[in-house]
Amino acid sequence: MNPIDTGRFIREQRKKLNLSQSKLAEMLCVEPQTVSKWERGLGMPDYDNLDKLREIFGCTLSEILEPVFNDEEGKIPEASEEKDTVTNLPILVDIIDDNQEIPRKKKRFRLFDFLNKKKISATLEKMFGYEYANTYSKKFLFKNIFKKRSREECETTLTQGMFKSRMNHNVIGLEAPWLYMRLFFFMLICSGISLVLAIVGLNPMPFVIIGGLCSVLPLMMFLFESNFARNLSIIDVGKMFTIGGLCSIILTVITSYLYPSNEIIIAVIFAPVFEEIFKVMVVIFFVALIKPTNMLTGLLIGFSVGAGFSFFENVHYAYNIAIECAIYGDEIIALIGSIFTIIFRTFYEFVMGHHYWTAIFGGIYVLFKKNAKFNFKELFQWRVMLSLLFQMVLHAMWNGASCLYIPIVPFIMKALVCVCSVGSLIVLINIGIAQTRILGIWEDYRSEHKDEAPQNENQNRSNITV
Questions:
Q1: What would the pLDDT profile of 311-359 be if each residue is shown by its tens digit?
Q2: How far apart are CA 34 and CA 10, in angstroms?
Q3: Which segments of 76-204 does DSSP mark as H helices, in order?
Q4: Domain count across the chain
């Protein structure tokens, strides 16, 4: 399945029916620019439009998503060639159409374009190759979270991705996540109880451990519920959280002995570079092991590894402060210091942190992977490298803000990091939803027609796994 081939098929079928782009757009209830974008291979139709195109052209879904052209008949794919297992590569190559109805004009870039929702969506579609699914609104995020749920519903959510329920594409849909909020309130209550016990018993470690999980665990459950591909179980997520977090922080601690003595250089350069690279290495390992083909799974993998790193780092900082204060014989100061540290870090990790930054890389890396097997060259795609640089910059800005003693500037820097972290994750989730919709209906179609003998071997040459 290739956006270029699909666009060519739409263009040829439109011309056979003597339809203009404007007329076809009117029949589909979309803008003419949208049809033009499809035909140029800059995007893919969504679920509803694919179904409408199938009815208008009188063809099958297979012919739209995997068209076979006359000039390609007779070509036999090489057996040794590695077949693509993902279909999410945005092809930024314009196909020349002599009968192009819409003249393209070069427009100057304006700063106000960042405030135009249509232009933002168009830019995202060109960059990622999928129509932007604006689904994660406030109503959707907090829809029916206080509604009474049955035990069966809870078990269904927790068992998604298990062996028996894995790759069940009938459940692919936009079911609003809800269990994450229940987990948050539960962790919040446990945090409060452990805080009281810490004050009474002068032992902050129970609160440090539970408090460190209070932010990352509900957020990780949110990503788990939002993984509509249903191909990772809660056990898989737990493994990535534990193993990924431990491996990342162990490598970070080992290399910390190579850091220079200058604290500013450590905070702005060495810590962001080394920590992000180690987390990325773990994410690449799990991606090569699991072989996901959808962006939502990549986001969940990256978030789980980053969440594990955040938790172990929180415990490490709180424990170090308690030990340093206890050396001077003041247990009260040690208690207050460790509790304040964990509260502060738990608070800001709701809106930014290692889990956000690593999730951004995991989603983009999986989105632009060409093959299921690990390929070293794929790491050097400009979008993948740009995502790695982006997470390093966010990390450096956060650390650097703590080293500045200029009024207001550190606050502005940290606020900017929070906005970029949360905003990027929501944008990538929406793009992942659009991708999962297309992959899901394609898998449904293939499963329904798996017993039918294909008319042409080339029609089933792709091996797509969600």
A1: 988 888 887 777 777 676 666 777 777 788 888 888 888 998 999 999 9
A2: 12
A3: 117-128, 138-141, 151-158, 179-201
A4: 1
